[in-house]
Amino acid sequence: MNKTIISTTIKTALAASLSLSLASFLGLNYASSAAIITILNIFETRKATLKGGAKRSLSAILALIIGGLVFELFSYKTWAFGIYLLLFVPLSLLLKIELGLGPSSVTVTHLLSYGQINPSIIKNELALVLIGTGFAFLTNLYAPESQDELKEWIYNIDRDIKDILNFFGNTLVNHLDVEIYEDKIKKLEADIGKAMDLAIVENDNRIHNSKDILRDLSHRQIEMDLLKEMYEDLKEIPRSYDEGKLISDIIIDTGEKLGDANEMIKVKERIEYLNKHFRMIDLPQTHEDFAIRSAIFQVFRSLSEFIDISIDLNKINRL
């Protein structure tokens, strides 16, 4: 059981118990409804809890207004509840507060039990909503800190990216099979996805949010896509290709210098030089040679974009 599940479980039990205790202490009717509202209003993140609580509070107020008017006009009968729903459901969907359909309608059933509506009853129902949503939000002020875990994710992702680039470079001179690293690429892609999910939750939980980490991971995601493109292109270049050493060196160098903006600029200049070199040598004579040359240019393009991302990220993190 991970810490998010444990945290949510404890927060839900604590908040529901406290809201029920306070509602009972204040002598509110249907005090248990405060606990139910609390449970329904606890979401995974602070942002979601605040947004959901606001929608449910607005929904409850609207439901009481519509329910009170309907019952006063058509009497406090069960069939009048159907008329209330015919009005409240489409209006909730229109206002995009359908999240509160269930708990708000439960509140309206209290009016049926009272058989009347007056300021005291309205205060009772609004107090239940306020206590329920209030404790849900207060309890969610605590959220597990994930900054250190995210930094470790990024460190491991960067290490794997460098490892993959180094392997890609060695495939062209050491006669290694580039497809051996297919599982490594899939794992890296999955790790970036997991880190992104955690960063999104962290961003929604922090008052001083984690947009920087989310942005950094988005850059890694783009780098991942470029690695996948490079992987496909490298499969088209024979291990025995005469100019393989030149391509190998530049790929390995990219991995080793990753993160150093000044060195990355020098590597990019070398890539541009190699681009010119391959354009100046004899044109391909066969379809196979043409496919190889095309794959080489695609590798250079991916490396160049890879370096641009690294340089941009380095500049942003210095600000």
From TrEMBL:
Entry-linked InterPro entries: ArAE_1, ArAE_1_C, ArAE_1_C_sf, UPF0421
UniProt-listed Gene3D superfamilies: Putative aromatic acid exporter, C-terminal domain
Pfam assignment, any one: ArAE_1_C
Superkingdom of source: Bacteria
Any single Gene Ontology cellular-component annotation: plasma membrane
Keywords, alphabetical: Cell membrane, Membrane, Transmembrane, Transmembrane helix
Predominant subcellular localization, coarse grouping: membrane
Transmembrane segments: 57-74, 81-101
Location in the cell: Cell membrane
Lipid bilayer topology: Multi-pass membrane protein
Domain Putative aromatic acid exporter C-terminal span(s) in chain numbering: 148-309
PANTHER family membership: MEMBRANE PROTEIN, MEMBRANE PROTEIN-RELATED
Name assigned to this protein: Putative aromatic acid exporter C-terminal domain-containing protein
